[in-house]
Amino acid sequence: MRLNRLELRNYRNYQDLILKFPNRLNIFLGENAQGKTNLLESIYVLALTRSHRTSSEQELIGWQDDFAQIKGRIDRGTSELELELLLTKKGRKSKINHIEQKKLSSYIGQLNVILFAPEDLSLVKGSPQIRRRFIDMELGQINPVYLYDLAQYQQTLKQRNLYLKQLSEKKQTDEIYLDILTEQLADFGSKVLANRLKFVKKLEFWSNDLHRKITNQKEELEIKYEASIPLESEDIEDIRIIFLNELKKNRKREIFKGNTFLGPHRDDLIFQVNQQNVQTYGSQGQQRTTALSVKLAEIDLMKEETGEYPILLLDDVMSELDDNRQIHLLETIENKVQTFLTTTTLNHVKGKMTVHPDIFYVHQGQIERTETE
Question: Which InterPro entries does this entry report, sorted A to Z (predicted)?
């Protein structure tokens, strides 16, 4: 998979921009607050229709503009695709080869990207919400149907919580509707859980292989899915029955509290290095190595699942890693994936790669391209 051309119109500080990327390694070089991260973000938004930096689409639209537009031309397998995303105050429209896509699941997955930013180092030591979002975004690219099941689960959860609250406040007395919502929650929740379990197992396989290499075979990495219900199987029907039974057991307590206590929205990931919880007891170096291993593992995982390598976006992470981790990162991606990297200096990549990058100098939203010798 490869992004050959990027067009931005009224996107953040870029009013009208066209960039071409003939090479595999592309570096956006410049001082801070010049627009480097905006470029990386636009590629991410083109792929996933949403930003990793803000939940407000209005922030992506130029200050005095009514809309923003992102276009990309990608090579995927033997075919070339034109992707387009239009962001307005009323919402967003996505197109593939100029044909509007009504369903999100039809669009996401056409361009697969992996983003690694400094905040991703908090994947290990951050909140469970960060890790759940990580699973949802990455799994959603591999399996767009997962996004549909997740959206249905979240919608049902919202309805169920509202009805539980009404029951707790005695505004409702009929529990039959709660039975219906509980059945639906278990139906969609079991699909979400089954896909997450399979994803985490594959992620652990690829992550541990990388983790061993980075630590010179000294450390073993395990990733465990910590569910809020007891799981003994990856079978959807088995999970559905267990989930339903657990919801029924907790019905009185949930009605009293007016909230749903169990389900994928309460789950977490546990990272263990040499059988020790790295979130709680690991050093900062171990936590960073774990985060790096997990993020880089997605490259091979996506290749295994989709048949193609994704595009890698590295947002100023080189300065956050020591020399050993920098070298392993660059060795992992070299000659494998198209990479877009933002940095304030070239010292992190000079002499460490055989690939000659294209350098895009970024200054106050203006771009000047040059190719290294």
Answer: DNA-binding_RecF, DNA-binding_RecF_CS, P-loop_NTPase, RecF/RecN/SMC_N, RecF_2
CA distance 211 to 213: 5
Q: What is the pLDDT of residue 371?
A: 61
> Coil, strand or helix: which one is 58?
helix
d(CA 187, CA 176): 17
Whole-number pLDDT of residue 6: 97
Distances (CA, A) of 364 to 26, 218, 297, 318, 361: 19, 45, 35, 22, 10
Mark the ranges of the chain whose per-residue pLDDT is less than 50.
Answer: 373
Output the six-digit token pair for 299. 């490259």
Q: Does 36 belong to an annotated binding site?
A: yes
Domains and CATH numbers, the chain: 1-112+308-373 (3.40.50.300), 120-307 (1.20.1050.90)
What per-residue confidence (pLDDT) applies to 370?
Answer: 75
Q: Is 32 annotated as a binding residue?
A: yes
Q: Which two tokens stand for residue 29?
A: 């070089």
- Is 101 annotated as ligand-binding? no
pLDDT at 373: 46
- 117 is annotated as contributing to ligand binding: no
30 marked among binding-site residues: yes
pLDDT in tens, 92-126: 999 999 999 988 878 998 999 999 887 887 899 89
Q: How far apart are CA 252 and CA 341, in angstroms?
A: 52
On whether 35 is known to bind a ligand per the annotation, the reply is yes
Residue with tokens 């990793």: 52
pTM: 0.86
